[in-house]
Amino acid sequence: MLTFQAFPLGPLQTNAYVVVDAARTRAIVIDPGTADPALSRKVAGLQVEAILLTHAHFDHIGGVDELRAKWGCPVYLHPLERDWLTDPAKNGSARWSDVTAPVKSALPDYSLQDGQKLQLIGETFEVRHTPGHSPGSVSFVCGDLLFAGDALFRRSVGRTDLPGGHQDTLAKSIRSKLYPLPDDTIVLPGHGPSTTIGEEKRENPYVPALS
């Protein structure tokens, strides 16, 4: 059975996730927001097969290049945000100069598409395009785990007032791509504590489930 650990990183406490296979030999990293020693120690001695990015805001990509250089692992990102990795104006780091230096990274190695199934660490990670917080936002489903990025939080949702964000689009993404998952699916968001799909359908005031 795979295991995972969240690492809240950086000034915005972005959740980076290290997901490790049952044999404890392989791992993937989701949204490495900063280059962090604790995260590096967690993957030391493991084969890091990939870095998966839910989207390319600066607080989710700051540690990409260090991990990629150390472990030689490819980076996956939706093509609508491909050039955000190289552009501080697009990834938001230029806008938030009070909390971060400009963030730049090399371009991703692979593009993500809605419905794509990635075979990594002996597991299947299904890609669901969930725009609204940003145009290229995706969520990853693996068994009963949902890595939701900044789409869905515990009793909240990602902000939609940044460039490329759209409130109605985000609500549609959540209702059409996330709420159909089983109620006991564990939601692992980009910020804050975990929740479940069932709890959010019942309690989320921003995107109530349609009857």
What does this structure look like?
The chain is α/β, with parallel strands linked by helices and 211 residues long. The protein has one domain: Ribonuclease Z/Hydroxyacylglutathione hydrolase-like (Metallo-beta-lactamase, Chain A), CATH 3.60.15. Helix content is 20%, strand content 29%. It has a six-stranded mixed sheet, with helices on one face. Strands 7-8-9-10-13-14 form a six-stranded mixed sheet. A two-stranded antiparallel sheet has the order 11-12. β11 and β12 (156-157) form a beta hairpin. The longest helix is centred in the C-terminal third of the chain and has 12 residues, at 167-178. It is globular and about 50 Å long. The N and C termini lie far apart (35 Å).
Topology:
Blueprint lengths: L2 E7 L4 E7 L5 E5 L6 H7 L3 E6 L5 H4 L2 H8 L3 E3 L10 H4 L18 E2 L5 E4 L2 E7 L8 E5 L2 E5 L2 E2 L2 E2 L9 H12 L7 E4 L5 E2 H7 L8
Please tell me the total number of domains.
1
Question: Average pLDDT, to the nearest integer?
Answer: 96
Tally of separate helices: 6
Count the beta strands. Answer: 14
Order of helices and strands: EEEHEHHEHEEEEEEEHEEH
Q: Can you say what the CATH homologous superfamily is?
A: Ribonuclease Z/Hydroxyacylglutathione hydrolase-like
Which stretches are poorly predicted, pLDDT < 50 over at least 5 residues? none
**Strand portion, in percent?**
25-35%
The best one-word shape is globular
CATH architecture: 4-Layer Sandwich
Radius of gyration: 16 Å
Distance between the termini: 35 Å
Major sheet details? 6 strands, mixed
Give the % helix: 10-25%
The spatial strand order of the largest sheet comes to 1-2-3-4-5-6
Catalytic activity: 3',5'-cyclic CMP + H2O = CMP + H(+); 3',5'-cyclic UMP + H2O = UMP + H(+)
Pfam families: Lactamase_B
Keywords: Hydrolase, Metal-binding, Zinc
Domain Metallo-beta-lactamase: 13-191
